[in-house]
Design a protein that fits this description.
It is a single chain. This protein has five helices and nine strands. Helix 1 packs antiparallel against helix 2 and helix 2 crosses helix 5. The protein folds into two domains: 60 residues; 132 residues, Histidine kinase-like ATPase, C-terminal domain (Heat Shock Protein 90). The strands form three sheets. Strands 2-4-5-9-8 form a five-stranded mixed β-sheet. Strands 1-3 form a two-stranded antiparallel sheet. Strand 8 and strand 9 form a beta hairpin.
Length: 202
């Protein structure tokens, strides 16, 4: 079984490489023909990110998985997610507001957490009417990353856990400090009136 999983992971990695080639060709066509294929590039990038999340899930779910914990500047992390998501959300008529109140460094797996937040913002954008908010703040000795939207909210609570949510929950739990694991919170308590996604990292 493990050999099969490793083979699948290798196939996913190869598919990501092919998407990179496709994105390069699209960019070349844009330059050659002076046309805007930004949405096509975004679709390719999104597919590559989904494959990355699948690989992240594979790594996290394997026995003995370890995070790559490094000190990260929280405001920079939020800014990176905003830069990645704002253009596409704007194209869909969605405004992304960022409010990061944590200016210090915090030990966490930066790459995986950034990927999870990108996924959360993308999902919020699918259901939002006009607004999505990304924020970060200190709470109970840890850092909370929150994504709110003004959509209809979760149909049921707790919601059915998608692969992305399961990985986010596992990611939070693997962050342990002073014997306290992180956790995922999902609710319809958004200040914007819709769904709320929260990751608490100790």
């Amino acid at each position: 079984m493990q050999h099969l999983l490793d083979t699948l992971a290798s196939g996913i990695h190869d598919a990501k490489n092919q998407l990179f080639i496709a994105e390069t060709l699209v960019a070349a066509s844009e330059a050659k023909h002076q046309i805007d294929l930004g949405e096509a590039r975004y679709a390719i990038e999104t597919a590559a990110e989904r494959l990355s999340r699948t690989l992240a899930a594979y790594r996290l779910m394997r026995h003995g998985a370890h995070l790559s914990i490094v000190p990260a500047i929280i405001s920079d992390l939020c800014a990176e997610v905003a830069l990645s998501q704002q253009k596409h959300l704007a194209t869909a008529g969605i405004t992304l507001k960022v409010d990061c109140l944590v200016l210090d460094e915090w030990p966490l797996d930066r790459d995986l957490l950034t990927d999870m937040l990108n996924n959360a913002v993308q999902n919020a954008g699918r259901f939002a009417r006009q607004n999505v908010a990304l924020s970060a703040f200190s709470e109970d000795g840890g850092v909370v990353f929150r994504v709110d939207d003004d959509g209809p909210g979760f149909e049921q609570l707790p919601p059915q856990m998608s692969t992305g949510l399961l990985v986010a929950e596992r990611l939070a739990q693997l962050h342990v400090r002073h014997d306290r694991p992180g956790h995922l919170r999902l609710s319809n308590d958004s200040a914007l009136g819709g769904a709320r996604f929260e990751l608490w990292i100790p």
